[in-house]
TrEMBL record:
<dbReference type="InterPro" id="IPR028624">
    <property type="entry name" value="Tscrpt_elong_fac_GreA/B"/>
</dbReference>
<dbReference type="InterPro" id="IPR023459">
    <property type="entry name" value="Tscrpt_elong_fac_GreA/B_fam"/>
</dbReference>
<feature type="domain" description="Transcription elongation factor GreA/GreB N-terminal">
    <location>
        <begin position="5"/>
        <end position="75"/>
    </location>
</feature>
<dbReference type="InterPro" id="IPR036953">
    <property type="entry name" value="GreA/GreB_C_sf"/>
</dbReference>
<dbReference type="InterPro" id="IPR022691">
    <property type="entry name" value="Tscrpt_elong_fac_GreA/B_N"/>
</dbReference>
<keyword id="KW-0238">DNA-binding</keyword>
<comment type="function">
    <text>Necessary for efficient RNA polymerase transcription elongation past template-encoded arresting sites. The arresting sites in DNA have the property of trapping a certain fraction of elongating RNA polymerases that pass through, resulting in locked ternary complexes. Cleavage of the nascent transcript by cleavage factors such as GreA or GreB allows the resumption of elongation from the new 3'terminus. GreB releases sequences of up to 9 nucleotides in length.</text>
</comment>
<dbReference type="Pfam" id="PF03449">
    <property type="entry name" value="GreA_GreB_N"/>
</dbReference>
<protein>
    <recommendedName>
        <fullName>Transcription elongation factor GreB</fullName>
    </recommendedName>
</protein>
<comment type="similarity">
    <text>Belongs to the GreA/GreB family. GreB subfamily.</text>
</comment>
<dbReference type="Pfam" id="PF01272">
    <property type="entry name" value="GreA_GreB"/>
</dbReference>
<keyword id="KW-0805">Transcription regulation</keyword>
<keyword id="KW-0804">Transcription</keyword>
<dbReference type="InterPro" id="IPR036805">
    <property type="entry name" value="Tscrpt_elong_fac_GreA/B_N_sf"/>
</dbReference>
<keyword id="KW-0251">Elongation factor</keyword>
<feature type="domain" description="Transcription elongation factor GreA/GreB C-terminal">
    <location>
        <begin position="85"/>
        <end position="157"/>
    </location>
</feature>
<dbReference type="InterPro" id="IPR001437">
    <property type="entry name" value="Tscrpt_elong_fac_GreA/B_C"/>
</dbReference>
Protein backbone atom coordinates (compact mmCIF):
# COMPACT_ATOMS: atom_id res chain seq x y z
CA UNK A 1 0.00 0.00 0.00
CA UNK A 2 1.62 3.24 -1.13
CA UNK A 3 -0.42 5.70 0.93
CA UNK A 4 -1.46 5.48 4.57
CA UNK A 5 -4.90 4.18 5.48
CA UNK A 6 -6.05 7.01 7.75
CA UNK A 7 -8.94 6.07 10.00
CA UNK A 8 -10.68 7.54 13.03
CA UNK A 9 -10.65 5.67 16.35
CA UNK A 10 -14.36 4.88 15.90
CA UNK A 11 -13.73 3.56 12.38
CA UNK A 12 -10.90 1.34 13.59
CA UNK A 13 -13.10 0.03 16.41
CA UNK A 14 -15.80 -0.85 13.84
CA UNK A 15 -13.28 -2.77 11.68
CA UNK A 16 -12.00 -4.57 14.78
CA UNK A 17 -15.54 -5.43 15.94
CA UNK A 18 -16.42 -6.92 12.54
CA UNK A 19 -13.17 -8.92 12.50
CA UNK A 20 -13.77 -10.25 16.03
CA UNK A 21 -17.42 -11.11 15.28
CA UNK A 22 -16.52 -13.03 12.13
CA UNK A 23 -13.60 -14.86 13.75
CA UNK A 24 -15.16 -15.66 17.13
CA UNK A 25 -18.83 -16.21 16.26
CA UNK A 26 -19.74 -16.69 12.61
CA UNK A 27 -16.78 -18.76 11.44
CA UNK A 28 -16.89 -21.36 14.28
CA UNK A 29 -20.66 -21.78 13.87
CA UNK A 30 -20.23 -22.26 10.13
CA UNK A 31 -17.42 -24.81 10.60
CA UNK A 32 -19.71 -26.75 12.92
CA UNK A 33 -22.52 -26.72 10.33
CA UNK A 34 -20.12 -27.86 7.59
CA UNK A 35 -18.85 -30.72 9.76
CA UNK A 36 -22.43 -31.81 10.48
CA UNK A 37 -23.35 -31.59 6.77
CA UNK A 38 -20.22 -33.54 5.75
CA UNK A 39 -21.29 -36.35 8.08
CA UNK A 40 -24.59 -36.72 6.23
CA UNK A 41 -23.04 -38.60 3.33
CA UNK A 42 -22.96 -37.54 -0.32
CA UNK A 43 -21.48 -34.04 -0.45
CA UNK A 44 -22.15 -33.40 -4.15
CA UNK A 45 -25.87 -32.75 -3.57
CA UNK A 46 -25.69 -31.57 0.01
CA UNK A 47 -26.86 -27.93 0.03
CA UNK A 48 -25.75 -27.25 3.61
CA UNK A 49 -22.25 -28.48 2.83
CA UNK A 50 -21.92 -26.66 -0.53
CA UNK A 51 -23.35 -23.36 0.76
CA UNK A 52 -21.36 -23.64 3.99
CA UNK A 53 -18.06 -24.06 2.15
CA UNK A 54 -18.88 -21.13 -0.13
CA UNK A 55 -19.79 -18.91 2.84
CA UNK A 56 -16.64 -20.02 4.70
CA UNK A 57 -14.50 -18.87 1.76
CA UNK A 58 -16.32 -15.50 1.79
CA UNK A 59 -15.69 -15.10 5.53
CA UNK A 60 -12.02 -16.04 5.17
CA UNK A 61 -11.59 -13.51 2.34
CA UNK A 62 -13.26 -10.80 4.44
CA UNK A 63 -11.09 -11.67 7.44
CA UNK A 64 -7.98 -11.36 5.26
CA UNK A 65 -9.16 -8.01 3.90
CA UNK A 66 -9.97 -6.66 7.38
CA UNK A 67 -6.62 -7.88 8.70
CA UNK A 68 -4.71 -6.09 5.92
CA UNK A 69 -6.72 -2.88 6.38
CA UNK A 70 -6.16 -2.88 10.15
CA UNK A 71 -2.45 -3.56 9.72
CA UNK A 72 -2.11 -0.62 7.30
CA UNK A 73 -4.35 1.65 9.39
CA UNK A 74 -3.01 4.87 10.84
CA UNK A 75 -5.45 5.87 13.56
CA UNK A 76 -5.83 9.66 13.72
CA UNK A 77 -7.96 11.31 16.39
CA UNK A 78 -9.57 14.42 14.84
CA UNK A 79 -10.08 15.91 18.32
CA UNK A 80 -6.30 16.32 18.60
CA UNK A 81 -6.03 18.46 15.44
CA UNK A 82 -3.92 21.53 16.22
CA UNK A 83 -5.02 23.80 13.35
CA UNK A 84 -8.81 23.92 13.61
CA UNK A 85 -9.15 26.77 11.10
CA UNK A 86 -8.55 24.54 8.07
CA UNK A 87 -10.09 21.32 6.78
CA UNK A 88 -8.00 18.28 7.61
CA UNK A 89 -8.77 14.65 8.42
CA UNK A 90 -11.80 14.32 10.70
CA UNK A 91 -13.13 17.84 10.10
CA UNK A 92 -16.84 18.39 9.73
CA UNK A 93 -17.39 21.12 7.16
CA UNK A 94 -20.46 22.88 5.86
CA UNK A 95 -20.08 23.83 2.21
CA UNK A 96 -22.33 25.67 -0.23
CA UNK A 97 -22.47 25.16 -3.99
CA UNK A 98 -23.19 27.74 -6.72
CA UNK A 99 -26.94 27.39 -6.11
CA UNK A 100 -26.47 28.14 -2.38
CA UNK A 101 -27.38 24.58 -1.39
CA UNK A 102 -25.65 23.77 1.88
CA UNK A 103 -24.20 20.37 2.65
CA UNK A 104 -22.46 19.17 5.79
CA UNK A 105 -19.85 16.46 5.49
CA UNK A 106 -17.12 14.87 7.57
CA UNK A 107 -13.78 13.76 6.12
CA UNK A 108 -13.14 10.23 7.35
CA UNK A 109 -11.06 7.21 6.36
CA UNK A 110 -11.93 5.45 3.13
CA UNK A 111 -13.02 2.34 5.09
CA UNK A 112 -15.63 4.32 7.02
CA UNK A 113 -17.02 6.46 4.20
CA UNK A 114 -20.82 6.62 4.02
CA UNK A 115 -22.19 9.27 1.66
CA UNK A 116 -25.73 8.88 3.00
CA UNK A 117 -24.52 9.78 6.50
CA UNK A 118 -22.38 12.68 5.23
CA UNK A 119 -19.08 10.85 5.72
CA UNK A 120 -16.77 11.37 2.75
CA UNK A 121 -13.68 9.21 2.25
CA UNK A 122 -10.36 11.01 2.67
CA UNK A 123 -9.29 10.21 -0.92
CA UNK A 124 -12.60 11.09 -2.61
CA UNK A 125 -12.39 13.93 -5.16
CA UNK A 126 -14.46 16.27 -2.98
CA UNK A 127 -12.33 15.56 0.09
CA UNK A 128 -9.08 16.08 -1.84
CA UNK A 129 -10.36 19.43 -3.10
CA UNK A 130 -11.36 20.58 0.38
CA UNK A 131 -8.14 19.58 2.17
CA UNK A 132 -6.47 22.61 3.69
CA UNK A 133 -9.36 24.97 2.91
CA UNK A 134 -10.40 27.64 5.41
CA UNK A 135 -13.78 29.30 5.96
CA UNK A 136 -14.54 31.50 2.94
CA UNK A 137 -12.31 29.56 0.52
CA UNK A 138 -13.85 28.48 -2.77
CA UNK A 139 -12.73 25.15 -4.19
CA UNK A 140 -13.42 23.70 -7.63
CA UNK A 141 -14.16 19.97 -7.77
CA UNK A 142 -14.20 17.74 -10.83
CA UNK A 143 -17.18 15.42 -10.37
CA UNK A 144 -18.66 12.87 -12.78
CA UNK A 145 -21.53 15.29 -13.49
CA UNK A 146 -19.04 18.09 -14.28
CA UNK A 147 -17.09 20.70 -12.38
CA UNK A 148 -18.64 22.41 -9.37
CA UNK A 149 -17.48 25.12 -7.04
CA UNK A 150 -18.00 24.92 -3.29
CA UNK A 151 -17.48 27.61 -0.69
CA UNK A 152 -16.50 26.56 2.82
CA UNK A 153 -19.06 28.00 5.26
CA UNK A 154 -17.90 26.47 8.56
CA UNK A 155 -15.39 23.99 9.97
CA UNK A 156 -15.81 21.96 13.16
CA UNK A 157 -13.76 19.31 14.92
CA UNK A 158 -14.80 16.99 17.75
CA UNK A 159 -14.09 18.45 21.18
CA UNK A 160 -10.98 17.32 23.04
CA UNK A 161 -11.97 14.84 25.72
CA UNK A 162 -10.98 15.90 29.25
CA UNK A 163 -9.04 12.67 29.92
CA UNK A 164 -6.99 12.90 26.67
CA UNK A 165 -5.99 16.56 26.96
Amino acid sequence: MDRPNYITPAGYAALRAEYDRLLATERPALVETIAWAAGNGDRSENGDYIYGRKRLREIDRRLGFLSRRMKAAKVVDPARQDDRTRIFFGATATIADEDDRHRTLTLVGDDEADAGAGKVGWNAPLARALRGAAVGDVRRVALPAGEKEYEVMSIDYPPVAADTA
